[in-house]
Structures are given as structure tokens and as C-alpha cells.
């Protein structure tokens, strides 16, 4: 089996990664995807516990089956255990799981839970989603961009222009950080009042200044400019139940819908979405189902990207 990338202790947040680590993880994900048999015993004898405070389709399946493909064992702990820190302290949770497992995957409501697990566990912790970051998703998306714009093209990711349209959330935060660290030009178009938190944007701006990439934040959809790929996510967060507020939100976001006309105007060749999609809201059904859509390729790449993280953290 080939050597693994720069050593990681945990995989918690994009802004804790170096450019070399991200590049190595992307390369390893593609290598595992193309030669899965070479890694079929990479996690032999290893057990990974998966904590899920929130419902999941892609994250649950991609981790579970990905761990199996690496020869490891996955144990799912669902919502029946309640929110971390309520039934028992996060520190106790982390220390107990460290007695049995070789790594912890956690999909949680709050980043503080991820940080608590990492602080008190004696085994690696992987952030499978929290309120601030979604690093596994972003890594899979950059694997997808690498496949589309770099492999066989004699270029690199720094030539790619990526735009995110919609609500500033954990997905856009992770894309923003990863793009800034890698040196990828990134445009973030959010309705007023739905931008990323200022401290996060300023941190990403510092990364972009260092890497030489261009980071743009605007609420004016007419200034989108030329792009290679456009990314969007749901406007209505999971569990949003106030119908009157939802209607007002949809009206406010309507000009930011990603559709064929936006793709034509920007010159973008692919559209991306982390799913689940609310069709005819943030993206039209016609575009989501079109040949320009790489949403299912990116969904598959979740497994390969996460496997690259697991191999890097656990394989000897």
C-alpha cells in the first residue's frame, strides 16, 4: 500500500489544515477511488464509532460503507443517545469511547462538542458536520473539482473559479476556508444578513492573502462574474418549521436561485450541491438533473474523501 499523506492528529476543521495536507488528502482520495483493492485491508482490525446527533443519509452511508471497504468495523450511535453533554459529560463520552474504538466520527449540532471530544479522547476525532464546519463535504467537493478541472488538463486547482450562492452556513464556511488555503478564487454571494460570521470571513481572508487567491463576499447577484463552478445549498435549515418565516425567507432568497440562466451568464460548466436539495427553491429541477450537475459524483466522493482521512489518521 502506498504511503499516506502528512500526518494528522484529528480532522476537525478546514482552517486547521495546511495546503499540503489538503492536497495530499485529495490525491489519496482519488488514488483510493481508482485502486480500492490496494486499501482493502488499510483498517484491518480497526473499529470506528460514529456519533450522530442529527439525521443523515450520505454521511452515515458513506462512512459506514467506506470503513467496510477499508477492512474496518463501524459502529453507529444514533439520536437515541441524545445530545452530547446532556446524558453525561462530553469528556466522559470521549474517554469511554477511547477505551473501545480506534477513532470517533461525530455529526453534531455544536462545534463545541467536536472540540470537547477531541480534547478528551485519546483517539482521532473526525468532524462529520457541526454548526460551523463541514470539512468532509468540502474535501469531497474539491476532489470533484480536481477530477473535472485538473486531471488530464495539465493545470491545477488554483486556476479554478468557484462561487457559492445562498445562505452562509457550515458548508460555505468549509468551502471558503479550503479554497482560501488552496489558493482557489472563491466568490460568496449571500443575501444581506445571511453572510458568514465576520470573524470567520476575516480568518479566511488572511488565508487567501497568504495563498494569493481572490476572496469576494457580496450580496449583489449581478456581480457574480465569470465562474467555472457554482455551488448552492438549501436555504431552509433542517428543522425549520415556522411556515410564515419560511415564506418570507423564500421570497428574500428567490433572486439567488441557481438555474440555467445563471450558469449561462457566469460561464460555469458544472453545478454543485451537498444535498438534500429543495428543488425549485435554491436550484431548479432541470439544472439539478442536467448533465451540468455533479451532485451525485460529489456524493460518491464523500466516501473516498473520508476514506483518505481515515487512512491518513489510522493506517500504519
UniProtKB/TrEMBL annotation:
Pfam families, alphabetized: OTCace, OTCace_N
Domain of life: Bacteria
GO biological process, one term: L-arginine biosynthetic process via ornithine
EC number in record: 2.1.3.3
Residue ranges annotated for the Aspartate/ornithine carbamoyltransferase carbamoyl-P binding domain, each copy included: 10-147
GO molecular function: amino acid binding; ornithine carbamoyltransferase activity
Residues of the Aspartate/ornithine carbamoyltransferase Asp/Orn-binding domain: 159-312
Extent of the signal sequence: none
InterPro entries: Asp/Orn_carbamoyltranf_P-bd, Asp/Orn_carbamoylTrfase, Asp/Orn_carbamoylTrfase_sf, Asp_carbamoyltransf_Asp/Orn-bd, Orn/put_carbamltrans
Gene3D superfamilies to which the protein is assigned, alphabetical: Aspartate/ornithine carbamoyltransferase (3.40.50.1370)
Catalytic activity: carbamoyl phosphate + L-ornithine = L-citrulline + phosphate + H(+)
Keywords, alphabetical: Transferase
Family: Belongs to the aspartate/ornithine carbamoyltransferase superfamily. OTCase family.
Classification via NCBIfam families: orni_carb_tr, PRK00779.1, PRK14805.1
UniProt cross-references to PANTHER family, sorted A to Z: ORNITHINE CARBAMOYLTRANSFERASE, MITOCHONDRIAL, ORNITHINE TRANSCARBAMYLASE, MITOCHONDRIAL
Protein name: Ornithine carbamoyltransferase
Species of provenance: Colwellia hornerae
Amino acid at each position: 500500500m502506498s504511503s499516506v499523506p502528512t500526518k494528522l492528529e484529528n480532522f476537525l476543521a478546514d482552517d486547521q489544515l495546511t495546503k499540503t495536507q489538503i492536497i495530499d488528502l485529495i490525491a489519496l482520495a482519488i488514488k483510493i477511488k481508482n485502486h480500492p483493492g490496494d486499501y482493502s485491508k488499510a483498517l484491518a482490525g480497526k473499529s470506528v464509532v460514529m456519533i450522530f446527533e442529527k439525521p443523515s443519509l450520505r454521511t452515515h452511508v458513506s462512512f459506514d460503507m467506506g470503513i467496510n471497504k477499508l477492512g474496518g468495523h463501524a459502529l453507529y450511535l444514533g439520536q437515541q443517545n441524545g445530545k452530547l453533554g446532556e446524558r453525561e459529560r462530553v469528556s466522559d463520552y470521549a474517554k469511554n469511547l477511547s477505551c473501545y474504538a480506534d477513532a470517533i466520527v461525530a455529526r453534531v449540532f455544536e462545534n463545541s462538542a467536536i472540540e470537547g471530544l477531541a480534547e478528551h479522547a485519546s483517539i482521532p476525532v473526525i468532524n462529520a458536520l457541526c454548526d460551523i464546519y463541514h470539512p468532509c463535504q468540502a474535501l469531497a467537493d474539491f476532489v470533484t473539482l480536481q477530477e473535472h478541472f485538473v486531471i488530464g488538463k495539465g493545470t491545477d486547482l488554483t486556476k479554478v473559479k468557484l462561487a457559492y450562492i445562498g445562505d452562509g452556513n457550515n458548508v460555505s464556511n468549509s468551502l471558503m476556508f479550503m479554497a482560501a488555503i488552496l489558493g482557489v478564487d472563491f466568490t460568496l454571494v449571500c443575501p444581506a444578513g445571511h453572510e458568514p460570521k465576520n470573524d470567520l470571513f476575516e480568518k479566511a481572508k488572511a488565508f487567501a492573502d497568504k495563498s494569493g487567491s481572490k476572496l469576494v463576499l457580496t450580496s449583489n447577484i449581478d456581480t457574480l462574474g465569470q465562474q467555472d463552478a457554482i455551488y448552492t445549498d438549501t436555504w431552509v435549515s433542517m428543522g425549520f418549521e415556522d411556515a410564515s418565516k419560511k415564506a418570507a425567507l423564500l421570497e428574500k432568497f428567490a433572486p439567488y436561485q441557481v438555474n440555467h440562466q445563471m450558469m449561462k451568464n457566469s460561464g460555469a460548466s458544472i453545478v454543485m450541491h451537498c444535498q438534500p436539495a429543495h428543488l425549485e427553491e435554491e436550484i431548479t429541477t432541470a439544472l439539478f438533473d442536467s448533465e451540468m450537475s455533479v451532485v451525485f459524483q460529489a456524493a460518491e466522493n464523500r466516501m473516498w474523501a473520508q476514506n483518505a482521512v481515515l487512512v491518513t489518521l489510522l493506517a500504519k
